[in-house]
Amino acid sequence: MNVAYFAFTDYSGKEFVFKVDNEQRIDEARRILSGEETMSVHVMGRIRKQPVQYNPGWNFHLDPDTITFFTMAIEVCDSSIAYTEDHLDEVCGAFLPGCFWCPWSSKLTREISEREAVRA
């Protein structure tokens, strides 16, 4: 199975790293980074409330099986990286119901090598 790691920032400039293990999604992310895809460029996925090595500094990550890219999404799943971290105990309830997170200001910034991801 192919695995890739990507990072996005939000309006605060903070970086969030996520893992993708779906060939189609990996290709989509690379098209976004190359500038070929200009519409569905924001990141969405289901939050898992546990830290992972490749996403240092945050106590949550995105489930790789749920990663998608979007143009527009409903307001109820929007939140900044830091606000989500600060209110992690409320995630999956009234805040980010169903654990789905779609930060509207997310901007894919780079692909991260597996070596860098596991070294983090």
Q: Would you give an account of this structure?
A:
- With 120 residues, this protein is of the alpha+beta class.
- It has one domain (4-119).
- The protein is 20% helix and 31% strand.
- It contains three helices and nine strands; from the N terminus they run E-E-H-E-E-E-H-E-E-E-E-H.
- The strands form three sheets. Strands 3, 4, 5 and 8 form a four-stranded antiparallel beta sheet that branches. A three-stranded antiparallel beta sheet has the order 2-1-9.
- The protein is globular, with a radius of gyration of 13 Å.
- The model has no long low-confidence stretch (mean pLDDT 93).
Instruction: Please give the number of β-strands.
Output: 9
Largest sheet: 4 strands, antiparallel
Which segments are poorly predicted (pLDDT under 50) over 5 or more consecutive residues? none
Number of helices: 3
Order of helices and strands: EEHEEEHEEEEH
What does the overall shape look like? globular
Q: Please compute the radius of gyration using only Cα atoms.
A: 13 Å
Mean pLDDT: 93
Strand content: 25-35%
Q: Termini distance?
A: 22 Å
> What's the structural domain tally?
1
Helix percent band: 10-25%
- Protein structure class: alpha+beta
